[in-house]
Structures are given as structure tokens and as C-alpha cells.
Amino acid sequence: MERRSVLTAGVALSTTALVWPATAWAGQAAPLSAGDVAAGRRLFAAGAYDRLGRVLPTLLAGARHGAAAGGPAGAARAAGVWVLASQLAVKRGRTEAAGVYASRAGAAARRSGEAVVLAAAARAAATPLRRTGRAPEALHLLQEARAHLTAGSRPTAAELDAAGMVALTAAYTAAQAHLPAAARDFADLAEESTHRLARHPHTAGIWELTAGQCALYRIGIHRHLGDLDTALAAARRLNPEQLPTAERRARAATDTARALLDAGDTAGAFTQLRLVELAAPHEAGRPSVRALTAQVAGRRPDLPGLAEYAHRTGAALSPH
Predict the structure, then answer these.
(1) What is the pTM of this model?
(2) How far is CA 257 from CA 59, 140, 213, 273, 304, in A?
(3) FRET partner for 200 with CA separation of 20 to 30 A, picked from 3, 42, 100, 156?
(4) How far is 108 from 274, CA to CA, in rounded Å?
């Protein structure tokens, strides 16, 4: 297969994503503010996982206090922190911890009574569930969350955004479970929500659901379904500038690398791994990405720069 470089270079870590309120994480146990949660999310989006890990205990302490004494608003903020903790655990390959945090997020989300918060918790739970062979349970949670979001005749922009992201998570979950019809149906629902969101009269704010996000998910969805041509076509259509965060750009490069490797383009896969490191260096050091680097090295140990890349990112290479 001809070598391809699907994504373009130049996606550097933005330091502006690391700015948080001056009062955030000043050592307080409570109360947890919306600004604290937003600051944690910015660290995650920037791929600053070590920094997030250092402040997470303070956020978790605030979450426990908010869930117990903060009413519905406190429960919503607590759910946001536990979702964040679950996502960080996934990045670090700690599936069991991710499941525990997601369970706490779900309980707090139900107390909050907010459908958007419940959707975020359902998405967080889906990853550890599918990684432990419980994809049907994950799909049930996601379908339930989407039903809450779309129950009204005129969903808000936030509800459309959440509904589309839930559908994308469901599509990816279904693809991993080898349910092609369900995967394609959920992906189509997400694109429908994207179009509706674009036409929504209340467009203030930056939404997670975009055409770029849909293209990103389709890379992984079609790869898991064994349709590499469609997966790589989605990668070629994707402009990384459409993805607003370093974490998402790194995810796009990782998924493209996997698809290229499956298609036999090992050099192209390594090009994408370089883009992972460029977008978010901590992403390149994740256990699953280090394993992907080792796979590339197993096929083409002669690739220029590969040994140095593996050393920087902590990938274990077999001696030759």
C-alpha cells in the first residue's frame, strides 16, 4: 500500500488551554466551584495529564463534599469531576479505577437531575464497560441517556451537543462489539444532531459535537468493522484544525495510525505517531500508544527516528 500521511503537521500544545481561575485549587477541600471543574477539563483537553493528576485529589475532595451537601448543582459539579477522573484513568490504562469513578459520576448525575450531566456520565461509563466485555450494558446506558436528551420536541443546543456525542460513543461501542448495523445507525444519528446543532438559533459557546468530531469517530468505527478503506477515507477528509483540543488531535492521529498499520502502511503509521507526540506528548506515552509504537517497530525497526521516538515515549522495543 502506498505510503500516506493523512493528517498535517503543526498541531502544537497550546499554553492558553492551561489557564485557570486564580482561586482554583488553592488547597480548599470545599466548596467545589464550576471554575475548578472547567480548569480540570482544560488540563485534560490540553493533554496535561501529569498536571491534572497532581490537582485531582483536591478536585475529588471537593466532589465528595459537593455530592453530599451541595444540592443538585453540587451533584452536577461532582459528577463532572468524577467523569474527569474516569477519563484520566482510561488514559493511564487503569480500567478498574475508571469504572469506579464512572459509577460515582452516574450516581451524582442522577441526583443532579440534569440530562446533559447524565449523558456525560454514561459516556464515561461506556469505556470501562466495553473494555471488560460488557458492551451491551454500555449501549443500554447510552441509549437511555440519549432518550432523556431527545425527549422534548425542541432540544437545547447543549442537549443536541450531548445527544450527538452520546451517539458517537454508542457507535464506537457497537463497532467494537461487532454490531455493524447499530454502529452505522448511531453514527448517522450523530451526524443528524451535528446538522441540527449547526442550524440552532442559540449558537453561543463551543460545542464538542462537530463535523470533525464525527469524522474522527468514523476512523475508529470503520476500522473496528474491518472497513479500512472507509476508515482511511474518513481520515483523509478530516482537517485536524477542525478539532479544538490537543487531546482530540492526538486521538485522531492515533486512530489513523492504527488504521494505516492494519492496512500495511507501517511508515505512514509512524508518521501519525509523530503527530500524536506533537499534539500532546503525554498521549504518546499512554500504555496503549506505547504498545502501538512497539507494533510499528516490530514490523519496521529500520524506520528513521523510530528508536529515538520509542525511547522518548517509553515504548519497549524487542532487541534485534
Answers:
(1) 0.87
(2) 34, 30, 17, 6, 17
(3) 42
(4) 39
